[in-house]
Write a structure and sequence with these properties.
about 80 residues, alpha+beta, two-stranded antiparallel sheet, about 20% helix, about 35% strand, globular
Length: about 80
């Protein structure tokens, strides 16, 4: 299975002032807050915690997205404060 280039955004930017990850696909911008991204984490630890408590993750308002790292050929690893 190969990753179609259109599946990747044209641009990925960390906007520290707005506390948001900004993406551009096909010339259309999108913005996701750091807090919403962190709250939506799908790693095994966060998924287990959600199942055990049956609640949304508690995320500090000042959470910061420190960096983005490629993960294989079809994903990104988001590293938070």
């Amino acid at each position: 299975m190969s990753c179609d280039d259109s599946a990747w955004p044209e641009a990925i930017t960390l906007n520290g002032q707005a506390r948001a990850l900004e993406l551009v696909w096909d010339g259309r911008p999108a913005s996701l807050s750091y807090r919403a991204l962190r709250r939506s984490c799908r790693c095994s630890v966060c998924e287990s915690l959600r199942r055990a408590t049956d609640t949304a993750l508690s995320v500090a308002a000042d959470v910061t997205l420190l960096r983005i790292e490629p993960l294989g050929s079809a994903a990104l690893q988001l590293v938070f404060s």
